[in-house]
TrEMBL record:
Keyword tags: 2Fe-2S, Cell membrane, Disulfide bond, Electron transport, Iron, Iron-sulfur, Membrane, Metal-binding, Oxidoreductase, Respiratory chain, Transmembrane, Transmembrane helix, Transport
Family under the similarity heading: Belongs to the Rieske iron-sulfur protein family.
Name this polypeptide is given: Cytochrome bc1 complex Rieske iron-sulfur subunit
Transmembrane segments: 61-82, 102-122
Rieske domain segment(s): 250-340
MF-aspect GO terms: 2 iron, 2 sulfur cluster binding; metal ion binding; monooxygenase activity; oxidoreductase activity, acting on paired donors, with incorporation or reduction of molecular oxygen
Organism of origin: Streptomyces aidingensis
Lineage, uppermost ranks: Bacteria, Bacillati, Actinomycetota, Actinomycetes, Kitasatosporales
Compartments in which it is found: Cell membrane
Function as written in the Swiss-Prot or TrEMBL entry: Iron-sulfur subunit of the cytochrome bc1 complex, an essential component of the respiratory electron transport chain required for ATP synthesis. The bc1 complex catalyzes the oxidation of menaquinol and the reduction of cytochrome c in the respiratory chain. The bc1 complex operates through a Q-cycle mechanism that couples electron transfer to generation of the proton gradient that drives ATP synthesis.
UniProt cross-references to Pfam families, sorted A to Z: QcrA_N, Rieske
Length: 357
């Protein structure tokens, strides 16, 4: 029994057992256990030691840039000459738009060749020597700035971008990079012709009759009762016209009849006829129909964003995001007793734009 106890004590570790040595404090670890391996020895490329290989790389880069230039020119030519509705069969895509296919192929080639030429130039001809440099504060002192500029100039000379060697390659790169943006400029043609002064003119003119937009019948003063609102249009617009929607989008109006003593704006009253006022119904915010009329207050509300106009006070804006009053159409009565316009709108109807006064 005692021998088992003594053996147990030896295993558990007494003051003289070998196990106690493993519990001693480890040796101090060096502050920098890994030495800086430094940069590997620079291995020159074939183009660095063989001028013929360098010339081949230069020709390849030049060819890529020239291909990009030709592809950009092809893009512009295709955009100008290929009809929009022309369909061609191209395997394996099937029937596709000839214009879209040509534009995609030429633009993709132009962009790819610019990128491939730049990458090939950098990998084979520009200097690839690695230069280590310690980190420093963002605001570098003057000697550091001068060193950076010196290294930059050296890199420019070694890459062949400067005025020295490889001028053809440099010039083709400038041509390719300069021409590629023309593809985007040419696409602006699809925005359509400039509107010119079309926004300033509508179908209204002196003597044009005002017709009910729903029935197409010309309106007389007695057709407009006090407190009512009638949506109207010029008689010169035909629903079957090809550009009907473009015309009515500018010329749609609303007629309201207000007691003459309730009209606050003298100019507005003068432009009306017997208390009948004619305003553009196109909201001056984003063009919704502002035809929700409250006869007690003479307010017209646009349902889209709640712009509110006081029709008794020149249709000035009372509330909402609209930028200016609804333009008023000057009206009168012709010899047959029908309501007619006496002129076009003084201000273009609809939302604001830069050229609007």
């Amino acid at each position: 029994m005692s021998s088992q106890t003594e053996h147990h004590n030896d295993v558990s570790g007494g003051p003289d057992t070998p196990l106690m040595k493993t519990e001693q404090a480890p040796a101090t670890v060096a502050e920098h256990p890994f030495a800086d391996p430094g940069l590997p020895e620079h291995q020159p490329r074939r183009q660095d030691i063989d001028e013929r290989a360098a010339k081949r790389s230069e020709r390849m880069v030049t060819l890529l840039f020239l291909t990009s230039i030709l592809a950009t020119v092809g893009f512009i030519v295709a955009f100008a000459l290929i009809p929009v509705d022309e369909i061609v069969h191209i395997w394996p895509f099937g029937h596709v738009s000839a214009l879209n296919f040509a534009l995609g192929l030429t633009l993709g080639t132009a962009l790819f060749c610019v990128g491939a030429g730049a990458v090939h130039w950098a990998r084979t001809l520009m200097s690839d020597a690695e230069v280590p440099e310690e980190r420093h504060a963002v605001g570098a002192p003057e000697p550091v700035k001068e060193d950076v500029l010196t290294e930059f100039r050296a890199g420019v000379r070694e890459s062949g971008i400067g005025l020295g060697r490889r001028k053809l390659m440099r010039n083709t790169m400038i041509g390719a990079v300069g021409l590629v943006p023309l593809s985007g400029v040419v696409l602006l043609r699809d925005l359509g012709p400039a509107p010119g002064d079309k926004l300033f003119h509508t179908a209204w003119a002196e003597g044009v009759r005002i017709v009910n937009q729903n029935t197409g019948e010309p309106l007389r003063p007695e057709d407009i009762t006090v407190g009512s609102l009638v949506q109207a249009a010029p008689a010169t617009i035909d629903h079957h016209d090809e550009d009907f929607h473009a015309q009515i989008a500018k010329a749609a109006v609303m007629l309201v009849r207000i007691e003459p003593e309730d009209i606050k704006d003298p100019r507005s009253a003068e432009w009306g006829h017997e208390g009948i006022l004619c305003y553009s119904k196109i909201c001056t915010h984003i063009g919704c129909p502002a035809t929700l009329y409250e006869q007690q207050t003479h307010h017209a509300l646009c349902p889209c964003h709640q712009s509110t106009f006081d029709l008794a006070d020149g249709a000035r804006v009372l509330f909402g995001p609209a930028g200016h009053p609804l333009p008023q159409l000057r009206i009168g009565k012709d010899e047959e007793g029908y309501l007619v316009a006496l002129a076009d709108f003084e201000q273009p109807p609809g939302p604001s734009f830069w050229e609007r006064g």
